[in-house]
Protein 1
Amino acid sequence: MGPKVYIDGKLCEKADAKISVYDHGLLYGDGVFEGIRVYGARIFRCKEHVDRLYESACAIALRIPMTKEEIVAAMEATVAANGIKDGYIRLVVTRGVGTLGLDPNKCPHPSVIVIADTIQLYPQEFYEKGLHVITVPTIRNHPEAINPRIKSLNYLNNIMAKIEAINGGTVEAIMLNKDGYVAECTGDNIFIVKNRKLLTPPASAGVLKGITRAVVMDLAAGIGVPVLEPNLTRYDLFTADECFLTGTAAEIVPVVNIDGRIIGDGKPGTLTLELLELFRAETRKQ
């Protein structure tokens, strides 16, 4: 028996986990999702992720056909069915089956999908030695086009930036916004440390308000580190004492080189490593 996937109220085998070619999630990227971690068989920051899913759905006028409690129960059942102790949940809501036209009103039944599996975004050496990243030409979506706070299934903006990073010989890209300020990376939020202060772009810069981002900001405040959300330029990144990325899959990964500039002393920073230890302790507390 292989992995089990939850689709619309039923657990099915991975090989049978299929959606219609008429689903608007496939045809148009019309839907929302969350990536959620499981630590010790417990769903980490479950409420925050589910709340954000419903907010993303609300923003695109998508009605999720389950209560929040039912969504949580579906995730717990899928985690248990797959025997996941430490892993990853991909929670997806699509607009559902419709016509070949754009009209979402022709999609009467949105679909809810839960995948529980393992994930490894970056190899261990990146956590020990730090990551090299570059700024890429593709900018973050204009907030009035599709607001980056909506975690939608249309990820082409991020994929284009990811391709540019790979073509540039790195695995992650820094994306600027329409005004030239730092927004975020293709799958992670970005932080810098300057004079023992923690800085990260504000939501208004065009960032997804990451769940891990919020945890890290709380942890920093808890140890007396000031946390600020100013608009940041590439100059601010280049001259930072430390830099790191945060995300559900990545957790906290140090950055030691940006666009060929060595950050700090070229090694993962002391506050970065301290926050990583605190974060890992937080995941064990659940």
Protein 2
Amino acid sequence: MIATPETIRIMQIRMGRNASGAYIPLEYEERYRVGSVEIQLAPAGHVLGSAQVVIDYRDRRVVISGDYKRVADPTCLPFKIIPCDVFVTEATFGLPVFRHEPAEKEITRLLNSVATEPRRTHLIGVYSLGKCQRIMTLLRNAGYKRPIWIHGALKSMCDLYCELGVNLGRYYLVSTTKDKLAGEIVLCPPSALNSRWSQRLNNPLIVLASGWMRIRARARQRGVELPLIISDHADWYELIQTIRETNASDVWVTHGREEALIRQLELMGINGRSLNVLGREDESE
């Protein structure tokens, strides 16, 4: 797809505003037109509200994936395959070593640990948007009915998810109790795992939920005793599966391990190129 004034306009920050300058919300699959360029959003399966951007210009289609995952997530709509000519894909876990475990299997490991270590607080590092709420719903779906305790930095996003209809069950702020929460599950930002804040808990067992936990050296560096391989991104095999299913002849790779995925695309007979986006860095996810 060739960049034209129209395609550039559609990607500018003022896109999607009305005459007063307020943003116009777009629903999934609702079409928005600027000249001969048409845009719509499709579910990305990353977190609640995440979207792919679908751009149609004449007889060509570009799909920009953003971050995405292919496994079921009870907190958001699943990723939708959109056939296209050009596919822009993330590559956070763009190496063959990354194969994510089923999230339900990892939650079973967590609950088994809670049962065998009843005197310790299981302190789980999670990101406030998406990962936190996904872990909570996975616990509920696994039959965990006890309250889940959270760090104050997670509360506003949990409240928002509940307002938007995601059932997280009972959750309370750690700061509302003087109990050391032995035998309980506590969620916090990864930065709080080994902070002074965590010292109020009863002999905390450090847990981190991340696709990076596939690399044991990373877990040891963070002092993680129970690494949970739960990711909100596609793993290597899901990246390749997705690219095949889009039937794109050109794939632009960004946000991650571009070199390995581009080499794999060459072997698949697909034109691959690196797309460097300013301000984007690898997530610790």
Protein 3
Amino acid sequence: MKILIPLKQVPDSTVRVSVAPDGKSIKAEGITWSISPYDEYAIEMALERKDADPSTVVALVTVGPARSRDALRQALAMGCDEAQVVIVDEPVPPLAVARALAKVIEQTKPDLVLCGKQASDDDQGFIGPALAEVLGWPHVATITKAVPGDGSVELWREVEGGHEVWTARLPALATVHKSEKEPRYPSLPGIMKAKKKEILERPFAALGIDTSGPMLEVLSMEPPPARGGGKILKDGDLNQVAEQLAILLRDEAKVL
């Protein structure tokens, strides 16, 4: 079985970002970049299958700037087998990204495509469903488990009070909410092997993708307001403190 994971490189969740002078983007200088967290869960789900069946091939693809190679190298160090990057330096419409990924998938012919349910930078959740539509493949959203069978795959979704289990004919696509295990860390041997693996590169323009279509427009960005300091109520007896707390919750916090 061949599993392909489209991934996205995003600012690391531990980094404090700041707004660029144009007021519509973030400052890229000094930012640590990493794999989008839900994409990491998709990688882990694929690698769990590879652990169970070593003949499984786990491939990666990303559409983005040249620095996206670092995210692919990280995923290769986790245990993935092959990777390629479609290099594009300027933003393109999300539908064009889905079409570019579809071109790669038509060439690599995976049995199963696993996408993170949404990227952590824009939270759109658009690429997975759009990619399935472009390919004409069955699609199940926000899965937590995948169990391949004979020409099909069982896809598990968490719902209130239990699970839904969907069966899809292969090839199929699913977006991953979380896998049953937390994403593994790259091992030292994995890092050394990843350094030697070739990452196929191609320019976005070489795919002949139509880049027309709606584009998300950011009107403005601003940091969240600074949080005020806390208050310690210690004057008076228990009843007086409770009365002060109720007044503050009503008049300042506006929660009562």
